Amino acid sequence: MNPVSLPPSLDQLPAYATYLLDHRLQEATAENLRLLRAHQVPLLSLFAHLPEAELFELVQKGLREFLMQIQERRLWEGALGNLARWQRNELEEVGQEQIQVKDMVLINSLRRQVLFLFIPDYTPDSRHAMALVRELESFYAQLDQHALAVYVDIQQTELRRERDQFASLIENSVDGILAYDRELRITAWNRVMEERNNIRRHDILGKKIFDVFPSYEETPEGRAFMRVLAGEKVVISQAAYHTRAGFYEAFMVPLYHEDGRVRGGLSIIHDITEARHLRHALEEANRELRQSNEELLRTEAQLREMNQELERHVERRTSDLQASEEELRQTMDNLLDIHHKLQESEHFLNSVIDQSPVSTWIADATGTQIRVNEAYLKLFRLDDPLHGVGKYNLLKDETLIGQPFYKDIQAVFTEGKVATFALDYNLSEGQHLQVPGQTSTLSLVTTIFPIRDTDGNVTHAVVKHEDVTHQKKAEQALKASEEQLRLITDALPVLITYVDRDGRYRFNNRAYETWFGVSRQEIQGKHVRDVIGEAAYAKTQPAMARVLGGEAFSFEAELEYRAAGTRFVAIDFVPHWRDQAVQGYYALITDITSQKKTEKALETALAETRRNMEALKRVNAELDSFVYAASHDLRSPITNLEGLLSALQRRLGERLQPTERELLNMMAHSLGKLLRTIDDLTEIVRVERESDETPEPLLLAEVLDEVKEDLSPMLTELNGHLDVDFQVTHLHYGRKVLRSVFYNLLSNALKYRSPERPPVIRVQTFRQGNDVHMLFRDNGLGIRQDQVDKIFMLFKRLHTHVEGTGVGLYMIKRLLENRGDRIEVESTLGEGTTFRLIFQPHPNGVPSLSGQGGGLE
C-alpha cells in the first residue's frame, strides 16, 4: 500500500459524533439507507436478499461503529484497517473483487452528506460548523486519495501475476514456442527455441522472422506465417529444417486484439526427428528381414530338389541290385554272364556316384574310404582325388568317436541301419578331414546307409554330405537380425508391434510391458481387443480395417486403454505385403499425452489472458466512472461554494472581523486545493489513455524544443541553462507520452531549484547494450537518501514550499512501466538530482529505440 499523509486531527468531530449517537442515530441511519438506494450503490445488491429490518440494522451497525471510531479518535486507523483488509482480501462479508472504486466513492460521499445534514441542528455557531466541515473535508480527501492508491496497487499486482504466469507457461513448454506481431517481428522466443537454433532470446526479440531466417521466406513454411496473419490456423507436418538437420511439425494459430483484429501469431514447433529416424530404422530392418526370409526359402527349395534327385538315384540303384541278385540266383549256370553283368552294374553304380551332384563317397566294411565323387572333391576343396582314399577311416575318426551319434555310425556296419547327423567341419583343424591351406568351416548333414551282399552282410557304406552352410548362415543372420531388431525396438519409448490378418499379436516390444503391466509372452497370440480393451479397440478398428486393405495410415486419437488408462497417441499403420496379399500390419504407437496437455494448457492460458484483458478493460471503465463521479459530484458543489464565498466576502466587505476574513480565506484555499486534487485525478486517467497511443519515430530534439518553448518564460526569469547531448537522436515512442515525461522532469528541475545558484539542467542520451539510457541531471535542492524511494508515490511531496500535488513523478513512472521501460533516481541533498530513464525492446514487438547517430535504424 502506498504511504499517505499523517492522519487528520479530529478536534471538533468527537463531540459531534456523541451527539449523533445519543440523539439522531435512527434518523441518520434512515437517511443513509435512503441515499444508498437513491444512488443505486452497486454493493447494496449483495444484501438485496435481507428483510428491511435486517438491512436497516446492518446499516445502523456500520454507522454506529463509524461514529464510535470518531468519538474514540481512532477513525483514521479504522479506515486504514478496512482498506488494508480489502487489499489483503480479508473482508468477512464480501470478496476483494466484489468491491469497486465506485462503491467506495459513493459510500464515503453519502456518509459525508449524512454528517453534513445534522450540523445546523447541532450548532448554530458558523465558525463551529465550518470547523466541523473542514475536519470532515480533510478526512475524506485523504481517505479518497488513499483508497484510490490501494485500488491501483491491487490492479497492478493482479496484472503482474497474470503476466508472470503466462511467461512461465511459455518458458517451461517442452516444445519450441515463437510469437510474432503483424510486422513479423518476433515477440516471444522460449528456452527450447534458444537451444534448437542457438540464438539467445535478447538477440532475436524485436527482429523480423525473415531477417533472421531468410531461407524460409519463399517456402510453404514462410507463406504459412502470412496465412496465420490472415486469420487461418495452419498445421505443418513432416517438414525438414532449413537451417539444421532434422524434421518438425508446427501448429500455428493467430492472436487477436480485444476487438477481434489479428494482432500477430503463435507457433508451436514439435521436433519429430528422433521418431522419424526410428520409423525409418524399423522399415529398413523389416526389409532386411524379408530379404533373409526369401533367401532362406530359395535355399530350402534347392536342397529339397537335390534330395529328391538323390533319392531317385538310390531307388534306381537298389532296383538294379535287386534285379542283379535275382538274375544271379536264377542263372547260376551262366556265371560268366552274371559276372559280366555285375561288372556292368558296378560300372553303373560308379557312374551314378560320380555324376551325382551330392557329395558322396564309399567306405568298405571296415569304414575305410575307397572311392569319392567329384561333388565330394568340390565340397571339401580337394585337388587330389586320392587325398583320403585308403587312409581315412570313418570308425576311427577321433572327432566322431566323442559325438553322441557315433553309435549310430557303428550300427550302419554292424546292424545295417541308416545314420543321419549334423556336424560343422573346420577344414583347418583336422575335424573329419584335414585339408591343407583351408580355413573355412562347413555345416553338413551327413547320411550313411549300408550296402549288403547276397547273404545280408554289410560290405560297403555310402556316405552322403548335404551342404547346409548357406542355410545355417542364413538362419544365423536371421536370428541376429531378429535380435538386433528386438534390441532396437526394446530401447524405444513407443509401442512397436506386428499384428496378423486375424488381429492377433505376433511381435511386441518391451514398451507393451510398461503400458499394460503384462509380459510379452502373455500378449503373444492374443487378439488386439483382449489387450487394449473394448473402448480403445472401437476407436482404432476402422483404421485397422484400412491398413489390412493395403493402405498405410497415420492418425492421432485419445484412447481409453484397459490397463494403461486414457492417453493421447499418434499411430502409424504400415501393411505387410507378401505374395501380393496383405498378411498383417506393423504399428508404431507414440504417447503424445504430455504434448496434448501442453497444447491444452497453452490454449487455457491464452483464454485466461483474454478474460483478464476484458476484466482490465472493465476496471479502466470503472476508473473512468470514478473520475466522472468525482468531477460531477464534487466539482459542481465546490464551484458553488467558491461562488458563495466570493459573494459573502463582497457582501460583508469591511464588516468582516480579521478572524472571520482569515476563516473565509482558509475555506477558499481548501476548496482550491480540493479542485486541484480532482484535476490531478482526471489527469492520471487522461495520461493512462494516452499511454496506449501508437508509437512513431520521434526526433528527441524536436520534442524537447516544444517543451522548452512552453517553459521559456520560467527559464528566462530564473536565468536557467539547458545543456543537451543526444548521442541517440531518435526514439520510437508515443509523442504525447514522451512530451509529458520531458515536461514533468524539466518543470520539476526548475521548481525545486536551489536559491543559491541559477538552475543548470543537462539532458543526455546514449546506448548501453540493447537499451537506450536518457539522463536528466540538475543542480537543485536534492533529496535525502532515506526519501529517494518515496518520490514516485501518489500524492507524495517532499518539498512543501512549492505548489504541487505529488502526481507528476507517479504518472511518469506509470507511463514508462506500462510500456516495459523504467525510471531510476539518484540524489544528493544540496547538490542536485539525476533521473535515469531506460528504454528497451518490448515483448510486443515494437522496439523503444529506433535510431542513433542522426538517422532511423
From TrEMBL:
Class of the enzyme per the UniProt entry, highest EC level: transferase
Pfam families from the UniProt entry: HATPase_c, HisKA, PAS_4, PAS_9
Protein's UniProt keywords contain Phosphoprotein: yes
Swiss-Prot/TrEMBL catalytic activity: ATP + protein L-histidine = ADP + protein N-phospho-L-histidine
GO MF entries: phosphorelay sensor kinase activity
Record-annotated Histidine kinase domain positions: 629-843
Domain of life: Bacteria
EC number annotated for this UniProt entry: 2.7.13.3
PAC domain location: 426-480
Keyword terms: Coiled coil, Kinase, Phosphoprotein, Transferase
Coiled-coil regions listed in the entry: 272-327
UniProt xrefs under SMART domains: HATPase_c (SM00387), HisKA (SM00388), PAS (SM00091)
Record-linked CDD domains: HisKA, PAS
Entry keyword annotation includes Coiled coil: yes
Domain called PAS: residue spans: 162-232, 481-551
Alphabetized PANTHER family for the sequence: PAC DOMAIN-CONTAINING PROTEIN, PHYTOCHROME-LIKE PROTEIN CPH1
Record-given protein name: histidine kinase
Source organism of this protein record: Catalinimonas alkaloidigena
Lineage: Bacteria, Pseudomonadati, Bacteroidota, Cytophagia, Cytophagales
